[in-house]
Amino acid sequence: MSADISSVFDRKNNLAKKQGSSSEESFSWIQAWNDFWFTPQQPYTICLMRLFTGCLIAYITFTYSYDLLAFVGPDGLLDKIAMDELRKDNPIFVTPPNWFDNPKELDKAVYIWSPYIHLTSTNCIWAIHIGILLANICMALGLFTRASTILSWMGAMFYVQRCSSSLFGMDAMIMILLFYMMLAPGWQAYSLDSLIIKYFKRKAGEKNWNAPPEPLISTNVVIRMVQVHFCIIYMAAATSKLQGAAWWNGTALWGVLANYSFNPMHIPAYTALITFLAKHRLLWEILMTTGCVFTIILESSFPFLVWHKNTRWLMISGSVLLHFGLAMLMGLIVFSLCMMTLVLSFVPAETSKSFVERWILRKPLENS
Amino acid sequence: MFAFFKPSLLMASGLASSAICLGLSQGASITGFPTILLGLAGFLVSLASFCITSMLLTQGLVTNGYSAAISTAMSLSLFLTGASFSQEWDTMAMASHGFSLALLVIAVILVLPQKLKKVSISLLVIYHFLGITTAVTSLEPPGATPSFIATNMWAYYFRHYLTFMYLNNAYHFYSPEPGPPTLLWFRIQYDDGTFRWFKIPNRQESPLQMHYQRMLSVTESTNMSSSNVPDNWDEKLQKRNLAGLAHTPQITPLNRTLSQSYMYREPSDHSKRMINSYARYISKKFAHPDGKPLVNIDTIKIYKITHGIITVQDLARDFDPLDKTLFYPYFLGTFDKTGKLLDPEDPFLYFLLPITRTMDPNQPSVLTDSLEIHAGDQKPAPAKEEAKQ
Fold first, then answer.
1. How does DSSP classify residue A165?
2. A residues 95-134 near B, CB within 8 Å?
3. Measured between CB atoms, does B164 come within 8 Å of chain A?
4. Rounded distance, CA B377 to CA B190, Å?
5. Rounded CA gap, A342 and A323, in Å?
6. N or C: which end of chain A has fewer CB within 10 A?
7. Is residue A148 a contact partner of residue A135, using CB atoms and an 8 Å limit?
8. In A, residues 139-178, which contact B (CB 8 Å cutoff)?
């Protein structure tokens, strides 16, 4: 099953050819919707995404260990008093459906949840932290995959809901990944679970113990959801950038490159490089404008062009290039890896499978 | 192979644990940690049963009806666990009830005929993405009000789901354009007259890049400014300038022609809460000076610094990106160790404390650091430094 929607349109065209032009009108968009969401798909891409997401969340959880109590402790950066204020006294206002009344307060509570909001014992906090880390490792390994993925999502939620003031884009991306992985049958390949099942099947004397995993509708639903979500992210990022003058005059990239707190400007070679650029205006202008145009064009065209076979790989490569650049220049390595894992959803399952077999497992090609 | 882990047996024990947990919490003879542990065990066992069933379902080894029954049982188990949480653990009770509801929905979908199953999944998918779209579009555009439809739909129909699932991000990265970073500097004054500075973020003190980035977010949380212009603005500015002139050494006055939003940045209520909390955190982290356990904190002065991004022209002229004049400090107040703002009428509160340098090429440049003067670090006349080549 390929990851583009051309198959849906091909079906429409074939139908039209077979039945005359009038059938084109009778082509059912319900059928197209059905094909898009509910066609069974091989699990290789989603399982690869589960593996990467597991590794990323294990690393993210591990990094909390250095200053755990500052982030989730009762006397941390956001202490219990602040947390209670944030979740119980955070008014939400809505505009009434007439032109004259003032906005009215709808609610004061925020629907967040985490045991770290309530725990005061340091030992309990550490016990939960270690438990979450173990679940993350199991998810990466594909051991008790479904349960460990659900626990990893819940565990990650415990942190993001508790230490809201220390979150950044990466946390939003890893939560998206975990949410979808929780719904996916990520145990079907590249997991210890799949190996264990094969072992038991072989032991039981089943002939098809080594059969490839079944294509599932649930795999396709999850893949499609990731794809649509990723397109919304890019579209929101592109359209919001177009509100800023610096993205129009091509200088926005400088705000990213010369930001001392975000960039490796403490490394002399980096500062020397951007100083060299600054001293050569034409080169600077070309690079800055190219960077801005590349970012805006990629983010705004990706949601449309990634669905077509001919432009899909161009879009995927552009996205990988963008996030590789962000990782190198801004040190946002884990954020960029999260984005690349999301982009992986556009890679067809067959490609993921052949990539792993050819380059990771070093299996010989079937037709050779 | 799943004989030992028979889902129905596991689910029965999970349900039993949850029921006992509820009984214990109501009986009040054993509460607290044992109850929570039992509730956790019940949840984990139920989860194992649910996950095994879902694996068996994908392999066609159990029926949809069986899976729906397991899902309903887990829903009941979570409902019981939720009911056993005390009022203090209200967020976890809410989460348990939320998951209980989600599992009931799953159970219903499982027993539906194929077509209705697809319709219901489609409706859920549409709800999910419509919600995400309202989160993206309900943010205020620069200088304008947000969409009426988007904000109302978000507030009435999607807010609970999106917040609960942490899907409420608007994805407006680097927009409308990349801005300067915010730093937080704390000057901790002890009651023996000594003091120390604590500055975040700090690359040297952060063990990992991730920790450093999280600290950048912490500082950014204090950077949401109130959109209201103070009623008595002229009077406020005059008081600030007079207090600066009366200070020894003097603190550079602010010119009326500068924009109000540049000179004065009162944090939003949300940011004020953050600042109070950080003051309490600092007071606990640095309760005593090194090696003096009997000396306590007297006050904490907090400054928010906007670190201006060096212009390309200045970098081309070899200016230092860390030059002090690129720092724009705003005074956030003096706090006691309970995080209380000591003087809300302080004339410098939320005002810029400019750091300036004279730029006469024939004279050695003079740096006037109003931040140091205000903090009390600089007692004598402003320091002189050689002009940078």
1. G
2. 95, 97, 106-107, 110-115, 117-118, 124
3. yes
4. 14
5. 11
6. C
7. yes
8. 144, 146-147, 150-151, 157, 160-161, 163, 165-170, 172, 175-176
| Number of Cβ pairs < 8 A linking chain A and chain B | 239
Residue for token digits 């626990």? Answer: A151
* Residue B205 half-sphere exposure toward CB, CA atoms < 13 A: 9
Residues 257-316 of chain B whose Cβ lies under 8 A from any Cβ of chain A: 270, 273-274, 276-278, 280-281, 284-285, 307, 309-310, 312-313, 315-316
**pTM here?**
0.92
Separation CA B141–CA A243 (nearest Å):
8
Neighbour tally for A290: CB within 10 Å = 12
- Tokens 């406020």 correspond to B236
Closest to B36 in 3D by CA, of B105, B90, B85: B85
First to last CA, chain B: 78
Written as one letter, the residue type at B1 is: M
Q: Tens-of-pLDDT digits for all 389 residues of chain B?
A: 444 568 889 999 999 988 888 887 775 544 567 777 888 888 999 999 999 999 999 888 899 999 999 999 999 999 998 888 888 889 999 999 999 999 999 999 999 999 999 999 999 999 999 999 999 999 988 888 899 999 999 999 999 999 999 999 999 988 888 999 999 999 999 999 899 999 999 999 999 999 999 999 999 999 998 877 788 899 999 999 999 999 988 999 998 888 888 999 999 999 999 999 999 999 999 998 888 889 999 999 999 999 999 999 999 999 999 999 999 999 999 999 999 999 999 999 999 999 998 877 788 888 899 999 999 876 544 444 443 33
Spatial distance between the Cα atoms of A366 and A59, rounded to a whole number of angstroms: 36
Rounded to whole angstroms, how far apart are CA atoms A238 and A317? 18
Burial (CB count <10 Å: 0-12, 13-18, 19+), residue B19: middle
Strand duo B297-307 + B355-357: pairing: unpaired
Q: What are phi and psi of B43, to 5 degrees?
A: -65, -45
DSSP A142: T
